[in-house]
Amino acid sequence: MLPSTSRCTQSIFACLSLTRPLAHFTPHMDPDPNRLVERTIRTKLANVFKPDHLEVLNESHMHAVPPGSESHFRVLVVSSQFQGLPLIQRHRMVNEALKEELRSRVHALAIQAKTPDQWGSDPTLGKSPSCMGGSRGDHTVEEKLKAGRE
Questions:
Q1: Which residue range is the domain that position 96 belongs to?
Q2: CATH label of the domain that carries residue 95
Q3: Which of 79, 97, 101, 114 could form a disulfide with 48 if both were Cys (CB 3.0 to 4.6 A apart)?
Q4: d(CA 4, CA 111)
Q5: Cα distance between residue 134 and residue 59, in whole Å
Q6: Per-residue burial over 5-14, b = 16 or more CB atoms within 10 Å of its CB, e = otherwise
Q7: Residues 141 and 65: beta-carbon distance below 8 Å
Q8: What sections of 50-139 are H helices per DSSP?
Q9: Is 57 exposed, middle or buried (0-12, 13-18, 19+ CB in 10 A)?
C-alpha cells in the first residue's frame, strides 16, 4: 500500500537505526520482544535491504483495534538498493518482502523508501495522515488480529 492511501497517524513504539555492517545495530528504543509482527517486519526488511537506516513504527493504537494490536505500521527503509528506481518500484519491493504479513496480519503499511543520498539531504520520517476509521468497516481486521496472536 502506498503512503498516500494509508490511514495511519504517527506514533513511535519502536525505532531502530542501522549502520553497515548489520552486526552493529544501534537501537534508539529497544523493540518489545513480545511484538512478533513488528520484529518480523524489522528482521525481513533488514535481511532483504541491508539498510543504512531502518525504522519500524507500530501505529495500531491510533486505530479502531484492540489494545496491543499489531495491524498498522509505518516503515522507513534507507537502502542503496533503491538507487535509480522509481518510488513505485521501491514500494513494490518492500511489499514483496512483507507479502506474508500483508496477506495475513497487517492491515495497513505506510512506506518511505529512500536512497542514502535522499536520506542524507532530508533525514525525516513523514507523518501519516489521520485515521479515517477505515478498519471499522473492514471485517477481515478482527480475523487478521486473531491470526497475529496465535
A1: 3-149
A2: 3.30.300.90
A3: 97
A4: 9
A5: 14
A6: ebbbbeeebb
A7: yes
A8: 87-97, 99-104, 116-121
A9: buried
How many domains in the chain?
1
pLDDT tens digits, residue range 68-108?
Answer: 788 889 999 999 999 999 999 999 999 999 999 999 889 89
CA dist 45 and 28 (Å) reads 17
Distance, in Å, from the CA atom of 44 to the CA atom of 50, rounded to the nearest integer, reads 10
Question: What are the φ/ψ torsions at residue 135 (nearest 5 degrees)?
Answer: -70, -20
Tens of pLDDT, residues 2-55: 333 333 333 333 333 333 333 333 333 344 557 789 999 999 999 999 999 999
Rounded to a whole number of angstroms, the CA Rg of the chain reads 15
- Between helices 87-97 and 36-49, what is the axis angle to 10°? 120
CB atoms inside a 10 Å sphere around CB 139? 8
- Residues 59 and 31: beta-carbon distance below 8 Å: no
pLDDT for position 127: 75
Q: 120 near 53, Cβ under 8 Å?
A: no
- The strands making up 53-58's β-sheet, listed across from edge to edge, are 26-27, 16-17, 53-58, 72-78, 108-114
pLDDT at 113 over 90: yes
